[in-house]
Amino acid sequence: MVNVPEMFGSLVFNDAAMQEYLPKGTYKALKKTIEEGKPLDIEVANVVAHSMKEWALAKGATHYTHWFQPMTGITAEKHDSFITPAPGGKVIMEFSGKELIKGEPDASSFPSGGIRATFEARGYTAWDPTSYAFIKDGSLCIPTAFCSYTGDILDKKTPLLRSMEVINQQALRILRLFGDTTTVKVETTVGPEQEYFLVDKEVYKKRKDLIYCGRTLFGARPPKGQELDDHYFGTIKPRVSAYMKELDETLWKYGIYAKTKHNEVAPAQHELAPVFDSSNVATDHNQLTMATMKNIADKHGLVCLLHEKPFAGVNGSGKHNNWSMSTNTGKNLLDPSKNPRENTQFLIFLAAVIRAVDDHQDLLRLSVASAGNDHRLGGNEAPPAIISMYLGDDLTDVLNSIRDGKAYEKKDAQIMKTNADVLPNFVKDTSDRNRTSPLAFTGNKFEFRSVGSSENIACTNTIINTIVADALCEFADRLEQAEDVKAAAEELVKETLQQHQRIIFNGDNYSEEWVEEARKRGLLNLRSLPEVMPLYTSEKNVRLFGKYGIYTAVELRSRADILLEKYSKIINIEALTALDMAKKDIVPAVAAYIRELAETANLIKSVDPEIATVTEVELMRKLSNLLSCFLKKIDVLDKAVMSAREVEGVVENAMFYKEKVLSAMQELRAVADEMESNMSAKHWPYPSYGTLLFSV
Ligand code: ADP
Ligand code: MG
User: Distance (Å, rounded) from C-alpha 685 to C-alpha 682?
Assistant: First the structure.
């Protein structure tokens, strides 16, 4: 029997553990640091470190590590044991406040985008006491921020923490204007719904593309995909169920509120959603969740694929980033309450989001740009590359009445009749869901659906927090001058709606008409990373991030460069993998099959010259033609990869990879898939899509 409450957080140095292990005075000082962001003095840190170590040892840990999120996208850790030599050839287990607060990993091998020359290798990690330490694989993991010797940030956590602070300040100004004198802190909250695929490990091992790239580069469509819609919410198979059970239990031990699990649309695709938490903790937890998903899969003879588009022809994976703002007393600032028309404070927060999204479409789009996610956005399965928002019919009616200066008549809640006596009738939700919108208001939060499944959500949330904070700041600047705040606020809401109407779209985001309509409205439609990333360092964005101390111009430039370079590197690896597979496996396999066909035809003829061998000969001819076409495509890709290396400038280089290399890969794939469809399964060198998608 699993005792969940007992298991929950058992590997976390959480509040309960702190109370148990820390002396009262130290506990209070640490709490102050956590709640008010006060610096921690070294005396306190020493005591905390000692207690943390005692706790960790009691849980069987032997090492500690600063756990941080460099620009690689994955989480970094370097483990040190607690041992310190003692007289008599013995050791004692030690851990100091200094070691807890600060680490000095060599920063030279982490991407810095030119911020830091290799000879200035020094980097620092600094403890983030707002995220609890935890034990993973026998190591005490201390969530930390990562910066260079000169103080430039090198990670994803620091800007996120800064943005949370900035939105806190601006939201508090608004609350004060509405007479709230008690709230001391506003925190942004996030609940990331994580999608993933599970494939059999033995099958996976036979696919170089999955091993090197996390996605398939070849593969003919299987006879069955997702067209029957029979996987979504379908019964979970025993093997997957066992995996999910162990995953849940492990996450609970890490203090992660794993809540919902279900099958997703594509075969072999699943989802896990936690209960929301503060953005910072949610980000750390999502990183830990992704790592845990992979680890647990391995134990079950499975591989967890977090890539945004592992398979062509079926849905890819995203990560819905549910976002809101909440006071320290737990009041959700995006809760419309019973009467939103009269809830001016809510309307101001909502208007701030609307304005932020419209003014900063570029930033939201680039926050979800990656080589993997570009395959997804714009396919008819995920929100398009065009950023717009959905508010639902009711809220739209409310807003329209404000915009037009009319009274709002609330529609009566409708009773849904089930027409079966044993079933209860229920009150219908006032608006249906819109599954196609990139950013949907879902009752009391915004759900940003464009985020890629493998991405660290820190970047997206840093941007959402900053742009909303900026809108709130402008609003507060104006309202603080007003004599009648409520009247001025209502006017502001009205004005915002009039100015930013174009960003609201309640229709089908997958339709062709929307692309045209969005163009008319002047909305951005930037389909790939190399197109959108240069906007990161536009004058407007440098000013925005500079104003709030999120990024300096140098940091922004470095981030854009890192992301552009990463994009080129990923496509380069994919192209080399495709070439390797093509030359070493596919060509020989097809050639062998052709030979076998030829030999068969000959053999048949030698036995009985009267038997027609048209079938063999025709198939042989078809495959020979395809093979020679394939060889030409190999050549084109080979040349494209070579030329790509010569293209200077990070933007130009990334653009070349997109336009020349990626397209050459696609052409190569088309021929390979055609050959696969015409080959005997025995001769094809890789497990088929059917096997990959349906073998678990
Ligand atoms: P669905 O998207 O399937 O309708 P829910 O609306 O229940 O599911 O929630 C999806 C996610 O949104 C969950 O992770 C949930 O914890 C999160 N969520 C709910 N309320 C908030 C909030 N105020 N702030 C951030 N995330 C939230
Ligand atoms: Mg959702």
Answer: 8
Q: Which residues of 516-551 are buried (b: 16+ CB within 10 A; e: fewer)?
A: ebbeeeebbbbbbbbbbbbbbbeeebbebbeebebb
pLDDT band at 425 (very low <50, low <70, confident <90, very high): low
Residue 424 pLDDT: 65
Q: How far is the CA of 519 from the centre of ligand 2 (A)?
A: 27
Span 441-494, pLDDT tens digits: 999 999 999 999 999 999 999 999 999 999 999 999 999 999 999 999 999 999
**Which contacts of 28-34 are long-range, i.e. CB under 8 A and separated by 24 or more positions?**
30/129, 33/129, 34/129, 34/130
Ligand 1, atom 14: closest residue by C-alpha = 191
Q: Rounded to whole angstroms, how far apart are CA atoms 353 and 468? A: 6
Give the model's pLDDT for residue 417.
65
Predicted confidence (pLDDT) at residue 429 exceeds the cutoff of 60: no
What spacing in Å lies between the alpha carbon of 53 and ligand 1's midpoint?
35
If you take atom 11 of ligand 1, which residue's CA is the nearest one? 191
Question: What residues flank ligand 1, with Cβ below 6 Å?
Answer: 189-191, 193, 273-276, 322-324, 332, 442, 444-445
What are the pLDDT digits (tens) for 109-151?
888 877 765 556 678 888 998 899 999 999 999 999 988 877 7
Q: How far is the CA of 504 from the centre of ligand 1 (A)?
A: 21
The rounded Å distance from CA 273 to ligand 2 centre is 9
Ligand positioned closest to the Cα atom of 448: 2
Is residue 55 helix, strand or coil? helix
Q: Which residue has the higher pLDDT, 602 or 586?
A: 586
pLDDT of residue 35: 80
Q: Rounded to the nearest 10 degrees, how much is the dihedral formed by the CA atoms of 425, 426, 432, 433?
A: -110
CA distances from 189 to 257, 425, 447 (A): 14, 33, 12
DSSP secondary structure string for all residues of 191-210: EEEEEEEEEEHHHHHT-HHH
Six token digits for residue 466? 């900053």
Task: Give the pLDDT score at 104.
Answer: 83
Of the CA atoms within 13 Å of residue 66, those in its CB half-sphere come to 24
User: How many Å apart are CA 373 and CA 452, to the nearest integer?
Assistant: 5
Contact 449, 438 (CB under 8 A): yes
CA angle, residues 193, 458, 148, in degrees to nearest 5 = 155
Closest residue by CA, ligand 1 atom 22:
324
Collect residues with CB below 5 Å from ion ligand 2: 320
DSSP, residue by residue, 533-567: GGGGGSHHHHHHHHHTTS--HHHHHHHHHHHHHHH
CA 281 to chain centre: 15
- Give the residue, by CA position, lying nearest to ligand 1 atom 17: 191
Short-list 144, 132, 139, CA closest to 19? 132
3-state secondary structure of 609: coil
Separation between Cα atoms, residue 661 and residue 279, nearest integer Å: 37
Whether residue 431 has pLDDT greater than 60: no
- Considering the chain, what is the average pLDDT of its residues? 92
